[in-house]
Give the backbone structure.
Amino acid sequence: MKHARIIAILFSLALVLPAQVIKIGSIAPDRSPWNDALKEIAREWETITQGRVKLKIYPGGIAGGEEDMIRKMKVGTLGGAVLTNIGLTKINPDAFVLSTPFMFHSEKEMAYVMERLNPVFEKQIMEKGFKVIIWTMSGWVNFFSKNPVLYPQDLKRQKLSFTTGEPEMEQAWKKSGYHIVPTEMKDLMMALQSGMVDAFYLPPLIAGSGQYFPLASHMNTLKIAPLVGGMVIMDRIWEKIPENYRSAMMDIVKKQSGKLDLETAALEKKAMDTMKKNGLILHEAPADSLAKWKEEAAKGMDELIGKKFSREIYDRLQQVLLEYRKKNEG
Amino acid sequence: MKARKFVGAASSLENLLAFLAIFLLALFPFMEVIARKFFATGIRNSTELTHHLVLVLAFVGAAITSRENRHLALTLNLKFQPRFMGRVHVLNAFLSAAFSTAFAWCSLSFLLNAFDAGEKIAGLPLRWIAMVMPLGYASMAWRFARHAPGKTWSRVIALTGIMAGSLLAWGALANAAQVLAPGAADFFTSLMPVYDFIGAHLSTPIIILLVFTALAGVPIFIVLGGIGLMLFAHSAQPLEVIANEAYSLLTSHSLPAIPLFTFTGFMLSESKAGERIVRLFKSLFAWFPGGLAIVAILVCTFFTTFTGASGVTILAVGGLLSYVLVRGQYSKKFSSGLLTAVGSIGLLFPPSLPVIIYGVTAQVSIKDMFIGGVAPGIILVLAMIIFGVVFAKKNKVPRERFLLKEAAAAVKDSFWEILLPVIIVWGYFGGITTLVESGAVAVIYAIIVEAFIHHDIKIKELRGVLLKCMPIIGGVLAILALAKGLSYYIVDAEIPMQLTAWVQATISSKYVFLLLLNIALLITGCFMDIFSAIMVVVPLIIPLGNLFGIHPVHLGIIFLANMELGYLTPPVGLNLYLASYTFNEPIRKIYKDVFPFLLIQLVAVLLITYVPFFSLGLLELFK
């Protein structure tokens, strides 16, 4: 009898406490591993909070592009969003340091740096009112071109498309001596077709799903920059979630993101296979080429340091990288 | 007296801003082309600059449109007593002023909350640039109130609309105040219950009122935006989203093409270029029955292939072609109807951007999509051509003998105008210019030709031409901007998802599904621009297509053909509005004009939908 009463009270309490619905926008398409993971997170969050926290997901950019979603979070239309580094940089320019070309050589290096620098970024992002729920690292960005590109001079002979929106980076490429043609993503297909551009750099997954690769079928395996992203939720909304749930919720996200890493790697491999079957020609980056790319990139570095991101964060990154490389040399 | 002086000064400021905005809008992309082609460089940040110039142009333009009282409205010919109609007009002014005020507050709060104080575009703080939004709406509110007909008391009523509008957007007003005057928070929270009450209980009646007054002359942009605003208010959501959607749309990818091509079209039709082109077309094509109509259809088709389905076609070439047709003895009714109907007809042919975006979104080969679109595209065009020829024969549209001498003279006469499409096409397909840049080149070229080569328009008169074209640009962009707000409500409320879930659960016949798809897509085509529709609707219909065994390419063609038709469907198809502006006819007349064409296209679209062969036959052949 007593139990029944308690249950009844608890039950009515659950009815009284309205569920907190958090709207999450995402650029990842529906039925992609990212969105599957997001749905899984939504399901598990709802379970462990006994239905108190519900996610409503707007996948495939239907809630707008990254800048649009950030504005929607600021005015309160969205509660959170899954972003790439383009969006994260929009919130906190210092995060752009992670996308600096030719900075990182391997996933391990990247993971080492992110472990040490992410708390710094998270604090900066928090100051803008966003709570970072998870960071993701899903592969690298590569060059795709009409004629093979192995060394910088090969690229300098071609017109390189640059997705508009990061004027500092655009200047940096120009300072390094490349022929940059600012192109919007929607124009890229036509620009490749009409010969306005000859080369672009994108993650292989996008080059495949966007069907750009048949028009620029030479790919260099050289790792230009890692593809960093993450999920953020407005801090004022995160704070409304009862505190006792939060750490369990974060654990669920970590678990899902671990699974996601494996799936995206598999997906990328599949995309590469499909592209190769459809005429993509893969060029292994020659051993001595990275140094040359870095040398060229250094010429444009002044356009980034102190302009796009702070010198402090750049120096800190260099320091951590050096630390890692020292440790792993011997 | 002082007030009048102030209003006069404000008007000249608007004119000056509009002139500057369109001039720079043409200049930046043009310089970008020069810099890229000849110096292998570019203008720093020119894309963002261009996009924000459109934002400025849109709101200054919309304010001018209010000043000239040229906002598009339905205005049916209602036969009521004049006394009653007078009251209706006062109510219209009241509602228009109220919602313009509400949009102004939403925009102000939006720019304060969505942009950081430090964000800059080309050295100018973004917040200051975006101030054009609330200022534009505020000036519209003021104009709507002033334009109220009748005596002083009716103006007073209309002016109270400004207060009512503030209450409608009180939530946004309070958010803005939090940034600007945190000390006054108490005052703003004290009125919040009123705002909440309106949202919770009065939304439905207000929306119904808006729909009714829409028939009696409240501008369309107020109706669409007002419905959006009330829906968001009803679900207790931030109203700033209305302003955000306007901002997103106006600063989006190919939007600058709209004002640029509109202005180019206007330059041509205001000069004597119209005469020259009439002579050219008549001498070359009038020997064939329906010849002029066929050429008009083909020009529109071709123009749409590379401008996408943005409605630019009607704005850019509609005026000129209408002039050509009417001078070629086609009735005005036929001309307006035909040109409205073919405003997006080339949508399926390469290099149409919607087809490409569809391919990427649905993960269908873009090449297959283009191959699949050939036959259905030809069916749509052919249907229009046949109708044109039959009309010409039946109405005995006079034909003219082809005379080589006259043709040669006409070509020589209009040489500079003929060169314009050549330059656009060569630039775009030759990889020299993007779509927006083609528009910029077209504006500058048209100014050079008409002002300096033909001397049809004097430099002094350029200002007049621009001011004549501003209400069109402003009126169209105002509608697009606020329709985007309403269409985001549809996304936010997950209405398409609910519909799909319902279909999945209840429909089992392929043909019933296709019929529902036709209807749903027609409605979508009325309310959403094509790119939003692709992103929102396509991921939902793909699994349904699989379920009912519809080939993904066929589904894509069905989707795009239906969207094209949606643009012509009364009461809210976008092309109808554009046509009303371009052909200077009330919208209810456009409805009538386009109706026969709409019916024929409906048959064609149904044919494309239910006979997969048209979309898939060629594809099989190429395999």
